[in-house]
Structures are given as structure tokens and as C-alpha cells.
């Protein structure tokens, strides 16, 4: 695939792949994250570690690179592009599972971040402005297209929860243009940056904004609806206290983490 992409495009695709991996590593290292893997430990996930998350992120670079390249090659046929990146994503998942010895570290990120990398590459190809809302909308259009070559597989944990409880999972979020990101996480990130001037606190607050509204299928599968509701209410309370930049917010976050562990 690389041979058919123009030299300047190859550089841009490589940059997108690097940025995607850096984003995953930054997310893993963000500390503190209540009951999640961070620099302090594994949180409530005994099968995960920070080292494993970083190794997994690096294993996905070839996949992100190929998705970006596919966007340049198939920019004029989104149906073909959808199915090509679907195949690339399945190969990327296999590489991830080989790296982690079967532990699911980034299946959701393969889907969500893969779509956003593809949408960004398309925007570059069409010389369109790089705006978060537009990228999420374009990613949603791709996500809505059917991949006719998805193999028949057992339902994932998230899919099982969606069928049982009617929760919206990662697929629905993507198809709707990532409203949790556009309407909640990014506004909170920008607000906390402006008010507190603290990048760490702003990123933690953005995570809390997501936790406060998402029907997290991982939490639903592992712990059930009661715990998910406590998590959402607790995250909202931290933000009402002023977020992680405030003493009250830090205390509330500590209580939330103890409740989830």
C-alpha cells in the first residue's frame, strides 16, 4: 500500500500514526484516573498494567499508518474505504492480542481512534480544515457504512451488554459522530484549561466529563448497572466541586476511586 501513496502523503500518514500512538500512551499515563490503569498501578483491572498498555499502543502504529494511507488511496469511495480499514483494524487487533498475550487493551481504541485517523487523513487529502467537530462527523459517516466482510464471531463483552441492557456502545457513539467527545469532553477540556491553566487537571476533568455521561459497557459487563450509575454520579460530583484543580474536587475524586475499587 505504501508504494502507491505520494511521498508528501506518506509523511503525513506517518505523522498521524505517531500522534495516534502518542495519544494512547498519554491516555494511559494520565494520573490519577479513578479505578483505571495509570502511573500508580492497575486500578480495578488486575489483567492490565501501564507497561502492557504502552506496549499495546506501540503495536498499533502499523495499523494506524495503514488506515491513514487507505484514506488517501480510497478517498473517492467511502464504502471501499470502510471495508479496507475494517480489514486493517482486524489485523491490528490480532497484532495487539499477540503483543498482550490475549488481553484486550485497546479494542475500543482501534475502532474509535482508527476512524478518527482515517477521517483526519481524508480531511488532509481534500485540503479541508482540521476541526474536531468536522472530523467526528466524517468519522461517523464512515462508521455508518456496512462492512460486508466482518467475519462471524462470538459477541464481545460490550455487545453482550448492549443486547441485554440496551446500552449504547462504542459503535453507536462513532456512528452518531462521537457526541460524548464533541458535546462533553472537549468543552470541559477547554473550560478547565481556561479557568485553571492546568493541563493535567483539564485532562482529568475531560475524562470525568466522559465518565459522567457514557454508558461504559466495560463497567456494565464487569460490575453492572448499579456501579455504572455510582460512577456517573460520582464523576459529576467531582466536576461540581470544581474539578481536579481544586482541593474539594481532589477529595471528591479520591472518594469516587475508593467507591469504584
From TrEMBL:
Catalysed reaction, written as an equation: 3'-dephospho-CoA + ATP = 2'-(5''-triphospho-alpha-D-ribosyl)-3'-dephospho-CoA + adenine
Superkingdom of origin organism: Bacteria
Keywords of this entry: ATP-binding, Nucleotide-binding, Transferase
UniProt xrefs under InterPro entries: CitG, TriPribosyl-deP-CoA_syn
EC class (word): transferase
Entry keyword Lipoprotein: no
EC identifiers of the protein: 2.4.2.52
GO molecular function terms attached to this record: ATP binding; triphosphoribosyl-dephospho-CoA synthase activity
GO terms for biological process, alphabetical: prosthetic group biosynthetic process
Function: Involved in the formation of 2-(5''-phosphoribosyl)-3'-dephosphocoenzyme-A, the prosthetic group of the acyl-carrier protein of the malonate decarboxylase.
Family that this chain belongs to: Belongs to the CitG/MdcB family.
Name under which the protein is recorded: Probable 2-(5''-triphosphoribosyl)-3'-dephosphocoenzyme-A synthase
Protein source organism: Acinetobacter bereziniae (Acinetobacter genomosp. 10)
Amino acid at each position: 500500500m505504501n508504494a502507491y501513496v505520494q511521498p508528501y502523503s506518506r509523511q503525513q500518514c506517518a505523522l498521524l500514526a505517531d500522534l495516534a500512538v502518542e495519544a494512547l500512551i498519554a491516555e494511559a499515563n494520565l494520573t490519577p484516573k479513578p479505578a483505571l490503569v495509570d502511573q500508580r498501578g492497575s486500578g480495578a483491572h488486575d489483567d492490565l498494567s501501564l507497561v502492557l498498555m504502552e506496549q499495546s499502543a506501540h503495536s498499533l502504529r502499523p495499523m494506524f499508518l495503514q488506515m491513514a494511507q487507505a484514506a488517501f488511496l480510497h478517498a473517492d469511495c467511502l464504502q471501499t474505504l470502510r471495508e479496507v480499514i475494517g480489514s486493517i483494524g482486524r489485523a491490528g487487533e490480532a497484532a495487539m492480542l499477540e503483543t498482550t498475550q490475549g488481553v484486550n487493551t485497546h479494542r475500543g481504541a482501534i475502532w474509535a481512534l482508527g476512524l478518527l485517523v482515517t477521517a483526519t487523513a481524508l480531511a488532509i487529502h481534500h485540503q479541508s480544515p482540521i476541526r474536531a467537530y468536522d472530523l467526528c462527523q466524517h468519522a461517523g459517516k464512515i462508521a455508518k457504512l456496512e462492512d460486508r466482510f466482518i467475519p462471524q464471531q462470538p459477541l464481545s463483552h460490550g455487545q453482550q451488554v448492549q443486547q441485554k441492557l440496551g446500552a449504547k456502545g462504542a459503535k453507536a457513539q462513532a456512528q452518531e459522530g462521537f457526541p460524548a467527545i464533541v458535546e462533553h469532553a472537549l468543552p470541559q477540556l477547554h473550560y478547565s484549561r481556561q479557568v485553571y491553566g492546568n493541563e493535567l487537571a483539564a485532562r482529568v476533568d475531560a475524562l470525568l466529563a466522559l465518565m459522567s455521561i457514557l454508558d461504559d459497557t466495560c463497567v456494565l459487563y464487569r460490575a453492572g448497572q448499579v456501579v455504572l450509575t455510582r460512577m456517573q454520579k460520582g464523576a459529576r460530583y467531582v466536576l461540581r466541586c470544581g474539578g481536579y484543580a481544586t482541593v474539594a474536587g481532589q477529595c471528591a475524586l479520591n472518594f469516587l476511586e475508593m467507591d469504584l475499587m
